[in-house]
Amino acid sequence: MYPFRYERPTDVAEAVGLLQAHPQARPLSGGMTLVPTLKHRLARPSHLVDLTRLPGLRGVELQDGVLRIGAATPHAQVAASPVVGQAIPALAELAGLIGDAQVRQRGTLGGSIANNDPAADYPSAVLALGATVVTDRRRIAADEFFTGMFSTALQPGEIVTAVEFPLPLRAAYCKHRHPASGYALVGVFVADTPNERRVAVTGAAPCVFRWREAEAVRPSDARDPGADALPPLSPEGLNDDLAATPAYRAHLASLLLRRALVQLRASAA
Fold first, then answer.
1. Cβ partners under 8 Å of residue 250, min gap 6
2. What does the UniProt keyword field contain (predicted)?
3. Of the candidates 82, 25, 77, which has an alpha carbon nearest to the alpha carbon of residue 49?
4. What are phi and psi of 41, to 5 degrees?
5. DSSP designation for 108
6. Which label site among 24, 104, 129, 177 has the fewest CB atoms less than 10 Å from its CB?
């Protein structure tokens, strides 16, 4: 690691002030990506601003049909929360599938979406559920938040404070885990809202995206969706690496979509 100054602010305002005063400072939440990056000397921040103990950034609250989760809430708490499990079971299930037990104890919701790793799980839930990302200065709709690989609509020094999820009618998340990291080789999150169906795919491309063709699928409640009824995902633009080819990722996406739709049908029965 390169030398840096560690700062532990007492509130969000102080944290924002530190980040604005030091352009090379980086916020630290769970540190699941940042700490290994520092270890391998791939980043050289002047300061690390610890957000993990700031009041108001942790916890789960359900009010007026909106599930609000603090940005510093660890994955394990989301997975174990009876409030999340009752309100959006698919979100609790997703949190329980992230990485391993150690990652789930340290990693946070806000850190995951602010980092926007192409294979992270949470971005698919935020996008499919039409959530709102709350920061220290504004509210950002999910459709506008994720802008590219490891990039978001966050401005320099802007801090995610919470994510607000409107309750869907039903939702399901299916993913194919990378055997070593637990990241999503491909993950598909499907949510039925009162106005529309939203389908988000993670792991397959450089950035999470909505699968618009899949959103038009309306399987009958009387039977499982047939393979012929599901739209194929084009492999063009999908990730090509040692783990999988674009064609294989496209195949996985269609398979996981079918499984998610079967889960939706079961939950509606």
1. 204, 232, 233, 234, 235, 238
2. FAD, Flavoprotein, Oxidoreductase
3. 25
4. 60, 40
5. B
6. 24
CA 46, 145, 110, 189 torsion-angle sign: negative
The radius of gyration of the chain's CA atoms, rounded to the nearest angstrom, is 19
Give me the residue label for tokens 């990378």.
Answer: 178
**Nearest alpha carbon to residue 255 among 186, 179, 180, 181:** 186
Distance between CA atoms of 26 and 153, rounded to whole angstroms?
Answer: 16
| Amino acid making up residue 260 | A
DSSP letter (8 states) at residue 240: -
DSSP run (H or E) holding 166: strand 160-166
**How wide is the angle at C-alpha 201 spanned by C-alphas 199 and 206, nearest 5°?**
145
**Exposure string (b/e) for 142-168, b if CB count within 10 Å is 16 or more?**
beebbeeeeebebeebbbbbbbbbbbb
**Minimal CA–CA distance to 201: which of 237, 241, 243?**
237
CB 183 within 8 A of CB 176: no
Query: Which residue, chain included where needed, has tokens 């080819």?
Result: 245
pTM over 0.85: yes
- 163-193 tens-digit pLDDT: 999 999 999 999 999 988 888 999 999 999 9
The structural domains of the chain, ordered by start, are: 1-55 (3.30.43.10), 170-268 (3.30.390.50)
**Does residue 224 register a pLDDT over 70?**
no
